[in-house]
Each structure stands twice: as C-alpha cells, then as structure tokens.
Amino acid sequence: MGSTPNGVRRLARFALSHRLARNPSRSLVDVAVEAGYADQPHMTREWRELCGYTPGQWREAELSLVQDPDA
To answer: Between vectors from CA 43 to CA 15 and to CA 32, what angle results, nearest 5°?
Structure first.
C-alpha cells in the first residue's frame, strides 16, 4: 500500500480527530484524548505536519462558514 503501519495509524488518528473536531462544543483537549494522542500539543504538531493548520486554526476557518451550528 506504500505506507508503514505507523503511517497508517497516524493517518487514522488524524482522521478520527478531524471528525471529532467538527463538533464545536467538544474541547480540543477532549478531541486529542479520544483520538488517542498523548496530549493536545501532540495532536497540534500532527495536524500542522499533515494538513498545515493547527486544529484551532482549522476549526475557526471551517466552522465560521457554518450558519446553523445545530444542523
């Protein structure tokens, strides 16, 4: 598949944290813990390396486009 087991695990953890971060009522600390990161700074480093944004930056840009947060 062209990826190491650690690479697959890293991408899976990122994908889970991305899904969880879409919920603005969930804290990024809780997202990091639930997604399996050691702590929030670890998650932030991974996000920056994988997509170029921190989770907070992504959330601010992405969720500012949502007009009805309850939808």
So the answer is: 75
Give residue 50's domain range.
5-57
- CA pair distance 11, 24, nearest whole angstrom: 22
Q: Side chain identity at 35, as an amino acid letter? A: A
pLDDT digit string (tens) for 7-24?
A: 999 999 999 999 999 998
Number of alpha carbons in the 13 Å side-chain half-sphere of residue 70: 0
Number of independent structural domains in the chain: 1
* Residue 67 in domain: no
- Name the amino acid, one letter, at 53: Y
What letter would DSSP give residue 53? S
- Dihedral pair phi/psi, residue 2, rounded to 5°: 85, 10
The verdict on residue 62 lying in a domain is no
Q: What is the pTM of this model?
A: 0.84
Could you tell me if residue 10 is inside a domain?
yes
